[in-house]
Amino acid sequence: MEEMIVKITEFLRKSPNSRARLICREIGAEKKAVNSCLYSNIGKHFVKQGETPPLWRNAGDNTVSDDTHNNEAHHIDAPERN
Predict the structure, then answer these.
(1) What is the distance, to the nearest Å, from the Cα of residue 65 to the centroid of all Cα atoms in its chain?
(2) Which fold is adopted by the domain 2-77?
(3) Cβ distance 80 to 35 under 8 Å?
(4) First vs last C-alpha separation in the chain
(5) Among 66, 51, 63, CA closest to 19
(6) How many degrees, rounded to 5, is the angle at CA 16 between CA 67 and CA 6?
């Protein structure tokens, strides 16, 4: 389980607010094992946000995942359209 925690933590450090399916694909693990690790370590190592499907980040990572905030950031960089 410790090896799985390390792999997930490293992935979420690079890609916070990710779905379990993406975590599985990127670390090469089965979804059942990843979900077991995530849910059994809520609060200690990982934070779950939302319900269906939840987004995951490392505990202590204050990365904002508010859709409004993210959309505003994209609009700033995007060229204006007439």
Answers:
(1) 9
(2) Arc Repressor Mutant, subunit A (1.10.10)
(3) no
(4) 53
(5) 51
(6) 160
Whole-model pTM: value is: 0.73
Amino acid identity, residue 29? A
Identify the bridge partners of residue 48 per DSSP, sorted by sequence position. 56
Q: Which residue has the tokens 């987004």?
A: 55
Using CA atoms, how far apart are residues 32 and 63, in angstroms rounded to an integer?
26
pLDDT tens profile 8-24: 999 999 999 999 999 99
Three-state SS annotation for 59-75: CCCCCCCCHHHHHHHHH
Token pair belonging to 82? 């007439």
Distance CA(58)–CA(42), nearest Å, equals 9
